[in-house]
């Protein structure tokens, strides 16, 4: 039997949207393999929200009594569930915590690990996944030959598909050895759309001249329900917090829509955003390299174009 | 204090990567220490100076990586180990690192949060699981108070302050330290610092690159007049269907 285990992350009691996408992805893979899709959620997911996992494709939901927060604790939970359910594929939506937990799982299970997967696997000749390499300058097709395969899925790797399966909820409990890492303080920006979860991202660069000019970026983002991002120099100069920085040395995102304002489009910046479905570039320099990597472009002064765009969007959204 | 920094040898991030016969052609490209590893190395040099410890750099690679290793020595590492093998994948590299680290008892093992060639971000987590050590990723600040390290770890939408006792592993990123440029003295002394070459242990291979492809190209950009932003809104709704 080839069962698929999907680890689900929750935020404010509900499954993250990217985790629901991972459940759909896992349900499709389970179908391809002729096995079952088993979702594993922690106590961070409210019991009355487990239904959603069945809706998006889980044949069974393991609901853990614990709520581990450290990657090495989550890895223990995943390994225990993988043993219990006899799974051959383990996957989760990419996140900072998952990115560390999955390689730990892979090492413990002597599995094939592939991160940042952008599409469903091909099964005609082994188990083959596609992922980008050299920061988006090439795509590799990688065959995973281990008995167990461990995958992290990028946002938009698969459609959110509704399966409407009946909910089969099973409590799950394992002994977890606590991590030696102790968290002393959490500094969280609240009320923002999470960059890694966002369908739309509004991003700005050094062209904005200073942090005092971000009001119009935030307003545009608000109208679109978007997250805000920035280029590296902007976070280096502390105009914006580091966790908004996208690119080679920042976060790599793949939203439906990426709007780049006053960003030149350096190769290292593109490395973090070129997986976006649609890219809009607003730059006053018609020669800015970013236009070559864009779907839509406007040559113009951001201070003029952005407020106009916000107005035009307000009129229709 | 014994510090290990693991570095990967990757194409310069500014380089365009040409394709030849369906493979990336890296022959004319210059190679560097992967940018995140370079952050880890920079902080490690500072911590070594602070604690008067010993800093070892480790690379899994064939002899062509030696200029990159020498650069790490020029930046300030005291000695280097090269595991003489092609770095097949993360599991292979992690297994080599773990084999050496289990003999050497380093107080901390630092590396970048991911390499810039295959961007896997797996090695630190695998080494941690293999050695049973705590692992902090992405680490943006690292200070020592005796045997305790206080670190800033990035989270989605913020950061956390975490504490862990040695030994530990950290996957580093900016702004943990400024990248260091080797000076003339460093470059001269690097030539005579010890670089030990060791044979790899046998490790099974669980992943195989079967094919390279060029990334999909976007169609040509549609330019919209700056005085007609309503047209952009229309295109995003009706053509691209993203809002
Ligand atoms: C190893 C390495 C890793 C790196 N990693 C990253 C990374 O992860 N992310 C990243 O972003 N960068 C990264 N960089 C830096 C990168 O090379 C660029 O320097 C950076 O992306 C430039 O940021 P920018 O586009 O905001 O600024 P600039 O290049 O200065 O561009 C500003 C743009 O704004 C435009 N502009 C100016 N005024 C206006 C206006 N009024 N209206 C509209 N447009 C205007 C200009 O025409 C220009 O195109 C890295 C570099 C290295 C060497």
Structure, described:
The complex is a heterodimer of chains A (317) and B (243). In chain A, 28% of the residues lie in helices and 27% in strands. Chain A is of the alpha/beta class and 317 residues long. Chain A folds into two domains: 3-172, HUPs (Rossmann fold); 195-316, 3-Layer(aba) Sandwich (Rossmann fold), CATH 3.40.50.1220. In chain A, the strands form four sheets. Chain A has a seven-stranded parallel β-sheet with strand order 7-10-6-1-4-5-11. A five-stranded parallel β-sheet of chain A has the order 14-13-15-16-17. A two-stranded antiparallel sheet of chain A has the order 2-3. In chain A, helix 3 crosses helix 4 and helix 5 (215-224) runs parallel beside helix 8. The termini of chain A are far apart. The mean pLDDT of chain A is 95. By secondary structure, chain B is α/β, with parallel strands linked by helices. Chain B has a single domain, classed as HUPs (Rossmann fold), CATH 3.40.50. Chain B is 28% helix and 33% strand. Chain B contains six helices and 15 strands. In chain B, strands 11-10-9-12-8-1-6-7-13 form a nine-stranded mixed β-sheet, with helices on both faces. Chain B has a two-stranded antiparallel ribbon with strand order 2-5. In chain B, strands 3-4 form a two-stranded antiparallel sheet. At the A-B interface, helix 3, helix 4, strand 7, strand 8 and strand 9 of A face helix 3, helix 4, strand 9, strand 10 and strand 11 of B. The structure holds flavin-adenine dinucleotide. Residues 205-207, 231-234, 247-250, 262-264, 266, 268-269, 272, 283-285, 288, 301-303 of chain A line the site of flavin-adenine dinucleotide.
């Amino acid at each position: 039997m080839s069962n698929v285990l999907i680890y689900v992350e929750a935020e404010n009691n509900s499954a993250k949207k990217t985790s629901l996408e991972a459940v759909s992805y896992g349900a499709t893979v389970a179908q391809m393999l002729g096995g079952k899709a088993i979702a594993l959620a922690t106590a961070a997911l409210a019991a009355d929200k487990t239904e959603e996992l069945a809706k998006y494709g889980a044949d069974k939901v393991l609901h853990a009594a614990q709520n581990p927060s450290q990657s090495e604790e989550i890895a223990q939970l995943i390994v225990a569930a993988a043993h219990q359910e006899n799974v051959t594929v383990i996957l989760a939506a990419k996140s900072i915590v998952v990115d560390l937990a999955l390689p730990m799982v892979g090492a413990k299970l002597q599995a094939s690990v592939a991160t940042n997967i952008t599409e469903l696997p091909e099964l005609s000749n082994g188990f083959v996944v596609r992922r980008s390499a050299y920061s988006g300058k090439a795509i590799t097709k990688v065959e995973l030959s281990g008995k167990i395969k461990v995958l992290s899925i990028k946002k938009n790797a698969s459609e959110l598909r509704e399966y409407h399966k009946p909910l089969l909820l099973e409590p799950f409990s394992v002994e977890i050895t606590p991590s030696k890492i102790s968290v002393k303080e959490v500094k969280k920006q609240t009320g923002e759309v999470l960059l890694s979860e966002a369908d739309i991202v509004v991003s700005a660069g050094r062209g904005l001249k200073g942090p005092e000019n971000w009001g119009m970026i935030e307003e545009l983002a608000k109208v679109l329900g978007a997250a805000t991002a920035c280029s590296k120099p902007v976070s280096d100069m502390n105009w914006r917090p580091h966790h908004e920085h996208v690119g080679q040395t920042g976060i790599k995102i793949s939203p439906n829509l990426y709007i780049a304002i006053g960003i030149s489009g350096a190769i290292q910046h593109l490395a973090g955003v070129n997986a976006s479905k649609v890219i809009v570039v607003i730059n006053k320099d018609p020669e800015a390299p970013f236009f070559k990597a864009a779907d839509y472009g406007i040559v113009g002064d951001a201070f003029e174009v952005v407020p106009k765009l916000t107005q035009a969007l307000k009129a229709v959204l | 204090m014994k510090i290990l920094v693991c570095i990967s040898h990757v194409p310069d991030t500014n380089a365009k990567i040409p394709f030849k016969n369906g493979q990336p052609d890296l022959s004319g490209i210059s190679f560097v220490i992967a940018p995140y590893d370079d952050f880890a190395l920079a902080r490690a040099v500072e911590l070594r100076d602070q604690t008067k410890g010993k800093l070892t750099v480790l690379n899994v690679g064939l002899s062509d990586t030696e200029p990159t290793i020498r650069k790490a020595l020029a930046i300030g590492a005291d000695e280097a180990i090269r595991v003489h093998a092609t770095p097949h994948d993360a599991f292979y590299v992690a297994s080599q690192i773990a084999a050496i680290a289990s003999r050497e008892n380093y107080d901390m093992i630092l590396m970048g949060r991911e390499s810039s060639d295959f961007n896997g971000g797996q090695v630190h987590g695998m080494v941690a699981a293999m050695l049973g050590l705590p692992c902090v990723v992405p680490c943006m600040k690292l200070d020592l108070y005796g045997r305790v390290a206080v670190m800033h770890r990035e989270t989605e939408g913020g950061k956390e302050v975490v504490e862990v006792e040695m030994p530990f592993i950290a996957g580093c990123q900016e702004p943990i330290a400024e990248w260091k440029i080797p000076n003339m003295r460093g470059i001269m002394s690097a030539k005579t610092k010890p670089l030990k070459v060791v044979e790899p242990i046998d490790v099974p291979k669980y992943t195989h690159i079967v094919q390279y492809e060029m990334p999909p190209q976007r169609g040509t950009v549609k330019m919209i007049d700056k005085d007609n932003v309503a047209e952009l809104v229309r295109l995003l709704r009706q053509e691209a269907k993203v809002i």
